[in-house]
Design a protein that fits this description.
By secondary structure, the protein is α+β, with helices and mostly antiparallel strands. The chain is 22% helix and 41% strand. α3 packs antiparallel against α4.
Amino acid sequence: MEELLDIVDEHGIPTGETVTRKKAHEQGIRHRTSHVWLVRRKCGRIQILLQKRSDEKDSYPGCYDISSAGHIPAGVDFLPSALRELKEELGYEAAPEELIYCGQRNFEFHQVFHGRPFHDHQVSNVYALWADLEPEDFVLQKEEVSEVRWFDLEECFEKVREKQIPSCIFPEELEMVKKTLLGEK
């Protein structure tokens, strides 16, 4: 059975209608996602964990991405979905109070993947989570994630902004996380 998503307004509030994930991406229908950025301090620097997407993914195969992210099934809210994705993709269990809210983004983009148009229109809640683990400590969902890697936050921001690594990361979102972690507004 195909995954159903809530159709939402510009603030991520469900309209009462649902759509299949496939149709949402074919037609660019607004839906919700949760994004969780795992961070740690190492040698006095903040590091951020990126996942490398599986080569089989329907969008951005083989690209570096947010530590853990996913579509929110119909009837589910941002926070429970964020916690579920962490467990599914990385094998990491967190409590709701551990997630640090960084803000909300409403964005859209259009690409072609595997020869098909892909129109994504998301409202995403963005969270940070302190987690001092090594890559081998995570249990990766192989159909979603091929590997994880820590980057110094500043290095990551530069590599994403300058397109030095294959990624589907928006620099604006990294900036939101950075400002939240550094206590800036």
